[in-house]
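Pasting as-is:
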Amino acid sequence: MEVQDGDQLKIGSSVIDVAFPIEPDWSPSHRTGDTTPVGYAPTVDLAEKGMLFLTFQTLARNGEQQREYNRQVACTFDDVGCLPFAAYRKSGDFAKAAVEKAQLAEVLRQGGPRDVPFATLPRLVRFRDINDPTTRVLVSPYDIAAHFGPGVELKRVILQLTDDPVTPPPQSWPQWLNAKHKYGEFRGYEHD
């Protein structure tokens, strides 16, 4: 993630590993949807202004937001699973397991960094008090200045497929957030 903070460009990145569930056509549920990400939410540290987290949680969209999402990507996975399809402009709209596997394989053959359309991003959040997990607020990618102050703008979110190992948690994370992840519970923070 690239965030403009006045005259400075702040960057936060993270390598995550995502498992895609593809059940055979004969499966009673033939379920496609929730991926299993492993790793840490990409985080941009804006010093005294706070931290911006790109979570692994699917965003609840209103009607217009959903229409814009659908214009950007046709995908039946959750938001994290649809990010590569949106970034590489490939279809992830599946009907049969063979099609799912072929389309996923096509995406995985892509290379190079690609911009992710803001309309397809999972939840972005910040904590008004980073030491209090109950102070989480949803942040619009189109107006992060509303939560971080004038002159702060999300410039780009870039996705690049890689075989690199999962990135360790940022050193700037508070202890409670690191502890939450140690038990396999962290997906960009799920406290509601």
